[in-house]
Amino acid sequence: MDNISHWSCANEPGVSKYALVIPRGGGDNLTAYSIEQYDDDATFNKHLAADVVSTTLFGWSRGIPNLWSKDPVVQNFTVTAGLNFAKPEFAKVADPYIVVEALTYSRGGVHHVLEHWEEEVEASREESGTLLFGVYADPTNENKLYTLAAYESEEYLTNVHAKSATALDLEKHTKGMRTSLTTTLLQKKGGFLYKGSPACA
Fold first, then answer.
1. 3-state class (DSSP) for residue 116
2. C-beta of residue 177 within 8 angstroms of C-beta of residue 112
3. Tens-place pLDDT, residues 163-177
4. Averaged pLDDT, 77-105
5. C-alpha angle with apex 91: 132 to 14, nearest 5 degrees?
6. Residue 201: is it exposed, middle or buried by C-beta count within 10 angstroms (0-12/13-18/19+)?
7. In what side-by-side order are the strands of the sheet with 141-151?
8. From CA 38, how far away is CA 52, in angstroms rounded?
9. What would the DSSP string read from start to end of 22-73?
10. How confident is the model at residue 61 (pLDDT cuts 50, 70, 90)?
């Protein structure tokens, strides 16, 4: 995917994230994830139609060896307005500690927890070691949110971010409405989660 990400960085202003990540620690050595973020559906469709994308990812239909052991699973999310940032400092960290969380709330709970997530994102912007944060809605499940975050290290997450007053307040006010939480730890192997000048990272 590196060839796609380099091309996308240079040619697709509407693509803000295009990264290949794997489970931190290696996982089963068979699983990888692609984290992609597009400004809109038109940008996404144009991206898929690009020759470099179709040849690399779907070339098996034209006789090029298939990359997949089985068909990839695609999940689509919607960016929650204002609850998304990536800092230039991301580009300076060799191995950012990436965390994805899937959170399910009781019926109607998302409406009530969003104000606390807004406070969490705003506080995280001011943290030197929190490099990226985003809150995403699941268009297929109104009771579910996903978060994507990256920190300068696991130690920063554990000893600074997780112990901040805002993070503790978020947990206090939302835990009772949360019915499930799944955390996935990831490591970036290629592509970019930050797009800026002079390059993507």
1. helix
2. yes
3. 999 999 999 999 999
4. 95
5. 65
6. buried
7. 33-38, 15-23, 178-192, 97-105, 141-151, 130-138, 78-86
8. 17
9. EETT-TTSS--EEEEEESSHHHHHHHHHSHHHHHHHHGGGGTSPP--SSPPP
10. very low
Tokens of 164: 């901040």
Query: How many whole angstroms separate alpha carbon 104 and alpha carbon 175?
Result: 10
Q: What is the DSSP string of 142-200?
A: EEEEEEEEEES-HHHIIIIITTSHHHHHHHHHHGGGEEEEEEEEEEEEEEES-B-SS-B
Could you tell me the two tokens for 136?
Answer: 């995403």
Pull the structure tokens for residue 196: 């800026």
Q: pLDDT digits over 112-136, tens only?
A: 999 999 999 999 999 999 999 999 9
| Residue-wise burial string across 119-136, b where 16 or more C-beta atoms lie within 10 A, e elsewhere | bbbebbeebebbbbbbbb
CA-CA distances (angstroms) from residue 189 to 15, 20, 26, 122, 198?
Answer: 18, 6, 11, 28, 20
At residue 196, does pLDDT exceed 90?
no
Q: Is 15 helix (H, G, I), strand (E, B) or coil?
A: strand
Q: Distance (Å, rounded) from C-alpha 154 to C-alpha 15?
A: 27
pLDDT of residue 60: 45
Higher per-residue pLDDT: 59 or 166: 166
DSSP state of 95: S
Alpha carbon distances (Å) from 49 to 39, 42, 57, 112, 133: 16, 11, 11, 39, 29
Does the predicted model carry a pTM greater than 0.85?
Answer: yes
The better pLDDT of the pair 115, 3 is held by 115
